[in-house]
Amino acid sequence: MTINGWIQIALFCAIVLALARPLGGYMTRVFTGERTLLSPVLGPVERGLYRVAGIDAAQEQHWLSYALAMLAFHGLGFLALYALLRVQAVLPFNPDGQSAVAPDLAFNTATSFVTNTNWQSYGGETTLSYLTQMLGLTHQNFLSAATGIALAVALVRGFSRASAKTVGSFWVDLTRTTLYVLLPLCMALTLFYVWQGIPQTLGGAVEATTLEGARQTIAVGPVASQVAIKMLGTNGGGFFNANAAHPFENPTALSNFVQMVTIFALGAAMTNVFGRMVGDERQGWAILAAMSVLFLAGTAVVYWAESAGSPVLNSLGLAGGNMEGKEVRFGILGSALFAAITTAASCGAVNAMHDSFTALGGMIPMINMQLGEIIVGGVGAGLYGILVFVIVTIFVAGLMVGRTPEYLGKKIEGREVKMAMLAILCLPLMMLGFTALATVVAAGLAGPANAGPHGFSEILYAFTSAAANNGSAFGGLTANTAFYNTTLGLGMLFGRFFVIVPALAIAGSLAAKKTVPASVGTFPTHGGLFVGLLVGVILIVGGLTFFPALALGPIVEHLAGGLGQTFAVGG
Amino acid sequence: MARPNSASLFSAALVGPALVGAVTKLDPRTMIRNPVMFVVEVVAALTTILFLRDVATGGANLAFSGQIILWLWFTVLFANFAEAIAEGRGKAQADSLRRTRTETMAKRLRGSGRDYDTVPGNDLKVGDVVLVEAGDIIPSDGEVILGVASVNEAAITGESAPVIRESGGDRSAVTGGTQVLSDEIRVRITAAAGSTFVDRMIALVEGASRQKTPNEIALNILLAGLTIVFVFAVASIPSFAAYAGGSIPLIVLVALFVTLIPTTIGALLSAIGIAGMDRLVRFNVLAMSGRAVEAAGDVDTLLLDKTGTITLGNRQATEFRPVHGVSEQDLADAAQLASLADETPEGRSIVVLAKDKYGLRARDMASLNATFVPFTAQTRMSGVDIDGSSIRKGAVESIITSVRQPPMASRGSSAALAYSPGVADETIREIQAIAEDVAKAGGTPLAVTRDGRLLGVVTLKDIVKGGIRERFAELRQMGIRTVMITGDNPMTAAAIAAEAGVDDFLAQATPEDKLALIRKEQAQGKLVAMCGDGTNDAPALAQADVGVAMNTGTVAAREAGNMVDLDSDPTKLIEIVGIGKQLLMTRGALTTFSIANDVAKYFAIIPAMFLVLYPQLQALNVMRLTSPESAILSAIIFNALIIVVLIPLALKGVSYRAVGAGALLRRNLAVYGLGGILVPFLGIKAIDLGITALHLV
């Protein structure tokens, strides 16, 4: 670890924090329907869209209609994307002549993008046409991100409203998020990335002759625009197979830094939106503080583990950090920080191979995801995910002040607890359940490239990433098989919608409640005490469940490494 | 507290039946009410069956499995014991109420005459009218419809002084089990056998009919959810072990599962609820539902009647304020003479003040040859005629009216008074000014005249109860707003409110105003508590979230409220709120403790369990437990014993002090959160040392 490295971490945090408030202010205006700077330009477009779709923007929805609208919208989106993948061979914008995608891979890919996971069982430049990338994937990158934000806003309305029947309109939230937030920011970022050297073209792959005279095919395409939304919308699906490690997706240290900031930007700003909408910005800062504590702790461990290097090599007398699977232009800090961010935020873009991290360095990304992607998290998804934990925290500890638990004036009762527990149950079921299946069936055991605990980690990581809707791959796992495509696809579906629907139910139930004015007898939820408590509950309720699995994967691998032991293939 | 307290938590009389109860509660139909413990019971039963099979077929490691299974059953039994002992304490309390009503015979009237049938009290139905004569026990709860009697209610209140019960007024309700001392009354029965207040109270502390409160239901959902999470965590382990090329014995998985699920709070949850009700009974308050006790903890606004709650019931003289030209001594002397024969508390307080302040000793009316002139509704004043002079005291307006008219000859005033309007008018203005001054300060002015000459004003004041200001400060610390309800005019009310330190007041309050105030507070999302006794309080009592009816009150009031205070002490609202808060806090503290325990249990069992797969995991054995078997056994023993250790806390409740929520949380979090993480590390290590020394594994 170096001073320079810590300064970069500090700088990263400072910029994200500095952006949270202005972005939050702007987004709050967007979601509450107030006039913004862009209204003169986008207002007519927005109204035009509503007219075409026959939407009455003033008509709000009950949480159930909101949920059904969201599910119907994604159902159709899934079918459209699936169809596109299956027939891309006969459609235009296919200069490299990509063939139709196989059914299991098409299912997996469609699910992956609809759920904002962007797990990639395919290699982008060798599987998908430009049309599929732009119309299918980039399109879903926008909409799945916008949906996450819309749902978070609906849940926030549950807290901010009193005795209300509705939680907003899904169509309006979706449209406004896309038009006013995602599109303008992505346009600016695209231009920035083009300046940094990322290609943006509809032309086919470039043929080059190397110095030795060999012919090389260099894949290009509309990369910059997709990179912009993949980071900003915490999607993470790369244009190229190598994702952000590819020099055309992430050419410079500056582009690397900006990509890291944009992964966190909207998620962090959402906490400010939350604070503003409930009328007390401190509440948002408290949530962001809890996220920051977990993030910094995780980052410190990854950075330390990668700087310390492999314990096996250390025990052989070789000192030095672990550079295996890392790009030299990013180095240890640039890779370790990126790994912590991308897994904390449900982005899933990678600029280094997590499979090649040290055992503990690779464990932190797993824990980040297993906690439920609530450390800043996916855009919107991070906020509603952590609010579910807040409800559990308030319920358990809030009783200790001698009142029925309340959060922001809303009483937390049976229904909220039931829905919060449903949402929390979903992740361990998907992550541990599918891992348990894959570790005993032949089709599952065929996947991992390594034996012993590391192979186990590869499987665990894959299902963790899918269910948490992260989408990053540990690597080393051959996932493009019918077994993995199907099980991972199911993990992504359940991991997304079995959290969203209970969260919406909570929104509906909270909105209908009265708001109790705060008094000195009310559990204060904006101070350090609450932040510490929230972190504790997240770790104990959300994290400890995975302790047995982690003990058998990265922990034992690390301990064995310290003893100079490795696990041979087949052993 | 009036009722003798059963001092010991674990007296032999309680423990015996509770031990039996712990076993009978193993009935799955009873257990299913408690999902967490039901799961433990099912797991214990299944492993017992497998164990018996292993014994028959000669399996390996039977001593170890046998001990684990034994402790699984102990876990369930300890939980049942906790509930049984809480019920036992509640029942002992209720039984002492019930004992007073050993099969009474009732005189059921046939018609409007005095003819009656003698029937057992249990056969009475709602609407029956019974005759209760001096010496009879009132057979059931009811309302006096005819007559007036003095009743000894010591059986329920512990207070031996008899109380008056009469038809028509606000004191018409009688409670079954109390005894009529004098006179006779006719009582219409309002509660059938088995549904009197006491019966309902007994039902609330008995497990079978106990309804779970909303908060308890929500907590049970959380605990069930956590249990399912740990099902996933444990059920996935066999696959993981298979991948690592080994297997984990079922009994070890079961041990891990049972230690992880929140058995501590699951075991104590119902005991906490019952103990909360029980604490109320000890305070002589009967709650009609557990929900009411919970609501008490949530109260945001407390409506308190001024008289009897904030002030002592009676006004007292505090000051003599003479008009210009009259000395205080003279005024005191006249006022004392006028009050000598006045038996009202106000009158007596004037005599006392005159003595305390001016050393005027009480004089004997007879030796002074004085005639007492009693208060009448017409004159609105009282006084004495002594040695030919007449002294009067009364409401300022009445006195002024009387001095404006020359005194009537019939009064026997021989002193021919030179009536000079000019002087009198000036004095009248002065008296009025003093009177207004007194009223502003929250007092009631009483004017005094001698022979038609205005002497001055005696200040009568509501005396605010000692220490009440501190109580209100405490309530404010708890975040509760207090509102004083009074019939006084706003000026007086404001003065008393300021003196007592209440947050707000409602002056010249009618029952409708009270109801409107409650609705207004509730519309803002606040919970309101109040107490009342009159029939006209009934709507407000029913509307309030916590309505405490006074036992002396009417049947209507008692039916409308959700608690009855047997001592009829309105100040108790404050204690009731405290008990509600304590109940919720105890639940929260033990839940936090239970969940925090998991950290240590993981560190005890995970390395022990996986050691056969990966010896390297020995590094996780941070407690340095002797062997895998001893580690697992220690964890499960700790898990069972902690239930017993925490029973006293569950029954007594965590200590509650009126400090802000932040301070309270910090303290409880340090004790039960951090404590919950650390205690099991120490406990498991200690048990491990013990079982190693005993060679149990």
From TrEMBL, chain A:
Transmembrane annotation, as ranges: 6-24, 63-85, 137-156, 177-195, 257-274, 286-305, 330-350, 357-376, 382-401, 422-447, 459-478, 490-510, 530-552
Keywords associated with the record: Cell membrane, Ion transport, Membrane, Potassium, Potassium transport, Transmembrane, Transmembrane helix, Transport
InterPro entries according to UniProt: KdpA
A Gene Ontology molecular function term of the record: P-type potassium transmembrane transporter activity
Main location: membrane
Subunit and interaction comment: The system is composed of three essential subunits: KdpA, KdpB and KdpC.
NCBIfam families on file: kdpA
Functional description taken from the UniProt entry: Part of the high-affinity ATP-driven potassium transport (or Kdp) system, which catalyzes the hydrolysis of ATP coupled with the electrogenic transport of potassium into the cytoplasm. This subunit binds the extracellular potassium ions and delivers the ions to the membrane domain of KdpB through an intramembrane tunnel.
Similarity comment text for this entry: Belongs to the KdpA family.
HAMAP family, A to Z: KdpA (MF_00275)
Identification of the protein by name: Potassium-transporting ATPase potassium-binding subunit
Record gene name: kdpA
Automatic annotation (TrEMBL), chain B:
Keywords annotated in UniProt: ATP-binding, Cell membrane, Ion transport, Magnesium, Membrane, Metal-binding, Nucleotide-binding, Phosphoprotein, Potassium, Potassium transport, Translocase, Transmembrane, Transmembrane helix, Transport
E.C. code: 7.2.2.6
Class of enzymatic activity (EC top level): translocase
GO cellular component, one term: plasma membrane
Source organism of the structure: Methylobacterium gossipiicola
Gene symbol of the encoding locus: kdpB
Name of the featured protein: Potassium-transporting ATPase ATP-binding subunit
One Pfam family named in its UniProt record: Hydrolase
Coiled coil: none
